[in-house]
Amino acid sequence: MAAELTAHQLIDRHRPTLDQALETIRTRAYWSPHPEHPKAYGENGSLDAAAGKAAFDALLGTRLDLGQPGTDGWVGGEVSPYGIELGVEYPHVDLDVLLPAMKAGQRAWRDAGAEARAMVCLEILKRIADRTMEFAQAVMHTSGQAFMMAFQAGGPHAQDRGLEAVAYAYAEQSRTPDVAEWTKPQGKRDPLALTKQFTPVPRGIGLVIGCNTFPTWNGYPGLFASLATGNAVLVKPHPRAVLPLALTVQVARDVLTEAGFDPNLVALAAERPGEGIAKTLATRPEIRIIDYTGSTSFGDWLEANARQAQVFTEKAGVNTVIVESTDDYKGMLANLAFSLSLYSGQMCTTPQNLLIPRDGIRTDQGAKSYDEVTADLARAVDGLLGDDARANALLGAIVNPDVKARLEAATGLGEVALASREVANPEFPDAVVRTPVIVKLDGAKPDDEAAYTSECFGPVSFAVAVDSAAHAVELLRHSVREKGAMTVGAYTTDPEVERSVQEACLEEAAQLSLNLTGGVYVNQTAAFSDFHGSGGNPAANAALCDGAFVANRFRVVEVRRQA
Amino acid sequence: MAAELTAHQLIDRHRPTLDQALETIRTRAYWSPHPEHPKAYGENGSLDAAAGKAAFDALLGTRLDLGQPGTDGWVGGEVSPYGIELGVEYPHVDLDVLLPAMKAGQRAWRDAGAEARAMVCLEILKRIADRTMEFAQAVMHTSGQAFMMAFQAGGPHAQDRGLEAVAYAYAEQSRTPDVAEWTKPQGKRDPLALTKQFTPVPRGIGLVIGCNTFPTWNGYPGLFASLATGNAVLVKPHPRAVLPLALTVQVARDVLTEAGFDPNLVALAAERPGEGIAKTLATRPEIRIIDYTGSTSFGDWLEANARQAQVFTEKAGVNTVIVESTDDYKGMLANLAFSLSLYSGQMCTTPQNLLIPRDGIRTDQGAKSYDEVTADLARAVDGLLGDDARANALLGAIVNPDVKARLEAATGLGEVALASREVANPEFPDAVVRTPVIVKLDGAKPDDEAAYTSECFGPVSFAVAVDSAAHAVELLRHSVREKGAMTVGAYTTDPEVERSVQEACLEEAAQLSLNLTGGVYVNQTAAFSDFHGSGGNPAANAALCDGAFVANRFRVVEVRRQA
């Protein structure tokens, strides 16, 4: 079959973007080819917000037939945290038919080489980017994110992370040349001469196990890293967040076909409610790479049991912010209030424990006692979320009943500094929208330890009174070592304390944000520049994105001949 | 303490070498800074052969006190395969004292940065290189390698592999800048601006578990990769091959001290006979990286049980050469004869199974039947080893009684095409020197399958009659997939057969040498250019050396602040 998209066309279209991505992962300066302003959409073939909404609405109640081999039924049943039944049906697969079919196209995909694979990946991302507004709706109505966040995090930011993974994958595969001439002098005798060919070869099939809260943002790095390194990729979405990844698979299959490759290099494995196919899939011999985002318990299970695969996990952690002193009290409170509120704290990067000296902190507005800091932070959150429209736009919806139950239980853990409030959503009356709760705990009381040393995913934070900055750093170290952390924050004007927090983070391998008081938040990372997780503490065994994330997804086979 | 060796001195001395290594791992052309001609030694501070021998002799019967904390006794007992009792004593360690002491210097080592660490590693390698002739004796009298091989493989080639690992480690750590300024436009508002610091941080302590046959060659990559990425390194040598690695540790400790670092960043863990400390060590929480060369069973155990560590293993495989046709029959026989003879076949890369069509092969000297090929190869080995002096120089000594027992048992497995012969060593009368055995087996007989599908480490090869080239490729695939292979060779003039062998190697991730008839052998790989193993089949989970070998030995911690 003649490809509709030739390699040359794709190189013309995408090589400059790849080159810029390669440059940026070295400089780690700001860059993104994916606009994060809604106004940028609607031109150059991309859908605007209305068209994206219309495209999403047209999907509701339909059957998404991906044309996959081994389809033995149809599954669905997603209900939006905003109350809509999606009613989309996806293929259920017979693995014994699908997995062999996914291997059929691997030789051609391997032989295409790293650059051609990168170009196809960038074309997939481009098609997704053009439908960003449609994906925004799909992410919103599966994750419960508010529209603006579903658009940004689920659209351009997720596409950035996918592109970043492609860039790392390409760079890694390009470290060894395709061919080398090797000539070794032998004194007076003729030199030894060999011609050596080096071929990146895939490991097999990569499995992406998606999560409920960030199906695209957390799914794209593994998907594109595996695909760009020559592997086929099977996507197993979270049963409550299938649509964004099913659309992704559909786009990938279309682009692969148009570029002359086998569409079965990318496939979807949706499941029946309660079927739990992840364990079965994860230990299949064909699955050689697994990318997982989700609970610590299942992540640990994968690491222990999926021994035939390279396993990349992002699990859960306990994120800490040390509040020791600040020269911008107002900025600090505003920044923290936003961090605690965004997506109702349902981010793996949301701060949970705010460690505050019981004797209070120094600020540009004078000394503030522990109680004052806690009360002022509560007021800042109240102020930020006082207007219901703004609250809805920031909080989004509670993603599932477990989060709601944890939020309700949190009030029993200690004195409530800020009570959670129910926010009505006029557009989606069934949405469960809640403001965050802040509970006071005492870091010197053994009884309180169980609460603040366990992850409490959702809009729950603990204002933990500590004896001193040193005590705070000790709790931070302990918590990162035992429970892991995706993020650490600290506010201090004391160079000694800053050094001490920094040293704790270096030793425990945690990513640290210092004195953020403006428009950057501890729970946000930017692709091409910030690492998401460190891969060095229990919260995650990999970072997004670095050499280690891609280097073992392929191997290099050398064929040498006498020259 | 003021360092005797300043960073500037070390950069002046070694940066050009590092740069050349960095360049060569990209081009994969021939290069080595370590001469492999004995004549090159004795100048510029290096020991010549006689001085190296004298230095080695002076070590015999002494106690090698490394000044390590936690020394609770002395162990030794190495007996050379050439019959000499080495009588060297090494410190036995109390791990509960030594391991904490090894962590004490890690902060300064981390803060020194990637370049300074690389420079210290290169200084260690330089000191070792100057004592190459002493190390040659130590390797010879622990591995049983003949002198020339002990010198080359244990000296310059091992140093090359160490330097290669340092280069990869440096390149990997340098992919992210130390500091980045990140400025994100915000339309009409002020841009967001952050200053980001990136620090490579070590995982902890790396454990190197050495092997009997190539203590330095197989030990240096892991040792230097871990050290260069900021980790401390504990070296657990094979009880029969302690001296080369103990000397290495001694040099490393000296250089670290002179450069102002804690010598305990590198330490030795020698053991009492039968103590078996590797299992204890491998599961200690302080050990976060393990490099292992040895048996498949213990390698598999490590991969399954040392879950707190990154585990890099080189285990055992079954190496195959397909003999289908050749346009240089004489060259092929000579090349194969050398490969089978070198170090009595005690290399993880030595061919074991020679797959030969039962209907014979096409050659430049006409058609040759299976029996003729087998007999001609036997004659070629006989010719190569006919002279006892030459035989001793090529074969070395049998490393241990297990290898001798396997050699003796091999004659019972099938018709013997070439019998093993005992070679007297006039210099070392106690050395066990044996020429290789070649046994004929039938690839169509299920009874023979058990023999040729199991690794038979030592001077034993099987001439396996196969039905066709296709049958040979099928056996090759099966054997690589099930048992792994460090090397694959093939002789063919048929482009179709060549493609088919090549495809099998690409799919099963095995390193292939085609039609070698000159002075390069299937069992040899050159640092900076050839990969040793692929990391993609059961023989080894890592390749020497690539990005994956170094990328996960450290993590990058980011500290970001508002600019």
TrEMBL record, chains A, B:
Keywords: NAD, Oxidoreductase. PANTHER family: DELTA-1-PYRROLINE-5-CARBOXYLATE DEHYDROGENASE 1, ISOFORM A-RELATED, DELTA-1-PYRROLINE-5-CARBOXYLATE DEHYDROGENASE 2, ISOFORM A-RELATED. It comes from the Bacteria. This is Aldehyde dehydrogenase. Residues 94-529 form the Aldehyde dehydrogenase domain. It comes from Streptomyces mutabilis. GO terms for cellular component: cytoplasmic side of plasma membrane. InterPro entries: Ald_DH/histidinol_DH (IPR016161), Ald_DH_C (IPR016163), Ald_DH_N (IPR016162), Aldehyde_DH_dom (IPR015590), PaaN_2 (IPR011975), Proline_metab_enzyme (IPR050485). Gene3D superfamilies: Aldehyde Dehydrogenase, Chain A, domain 1, Aldehyde Dehydrogenase, Chain A, domain 2. One of its GO terms (molecular function) is L-glutamate gamma-semialdehyde dehydrogenase activity. CDD domains: ALDH_PAD-PaaZ. GO terms for biological process: L-proline catabolic process to L-glutamate.
